[in-house]
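Hey, weird one. I pasted the GAF domain-containing protein sequence into the form twice and got a warning about non-standard characters only the second time. First submission, copied straight from the form history:
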Amino acid sequence: MSAPPQRLRADELMSAVASVVATEPDMIADMANIAAMIFEALPDLNWAGFYIWKENQLVLGPFQGRMACTRIAYGRGVCGTVARERRSLVVPDVHAFPGHIACDAASASEIVVPVIAGDRLLGVLDIDSPVRDRFSDADRIMLEKIVDLLVQAISATAV
């Protein structure tokens, strides 16, 4: 029987993300790799991925995990609220969040970080866990730095 995969420390995850996005300016490709790295690196997750801002709503982008909601209205649920407020939210108990959208009934806590380039909303990074109170302020800070790396990579080639 093989051993379970080793989890990356926060600094190792940041380094891995920086390395991958440094050579790839395509937003979708970077989002796909970031979602995979987060899903593999962080314990107790059941979903990690992105929603992309299109046509005044959030549309499902690259992710790892169970099937997800395809479209989320602006201001609705945790992701839509983050899109509207343009600030990260750590939700210890999603069932207590007003207007929570239950894409996966197994999710118990959530952290969502906006992806913003300049003043333009590009989407959100959404991470779910089946464990209540899974996410800390340290997780928020790390994920915000990961999103910053993504934005820097895709902005470097924007004219």
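That's the output from the first submission. The warning seems to come from a hidden character in my clipboard, not from the data itself. The helical segments are 10-22, 27-41, 77-85, 137-155.
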